[in-house]
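Person: Please comment on this record:
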Amino acid sequence: MSIWIYIAVMAAVTYLIRVIPFTLFRKKIKSQLLQSFLYYVPYAVLSAMTIPAIFYSTGNMTTALTGTAVALVLAYFDLPLIVVALAASASAFLCGLLLV
């Protein structure tokens, strides 16, 4: 099969995913239940993509848990995202060095 067929199918799927909600929901959504459900969808999808990547990125559960714990503690204290990310990465790295 030609790669152009794959590209065309992916373009069509991507286009349909973006167009279907606009064709189905032309009016403002007034249902509080549906609005509250749709409000949390981006957070749920982001969590579903991020959490597995956190635990399987280092190849060692101890380093992953160390980095996650550091990130949670620093995020609890409302530190900037760059500080949280760098500290979590550094702690996972250092934990990996200590385990070797």
Remarks:
- The chain has one domain: 28-99.
- The mean pLDDT is 91.
- The radius of gyration is 20 Å.
- Residues 32-56 form the longest helix (25 residues).
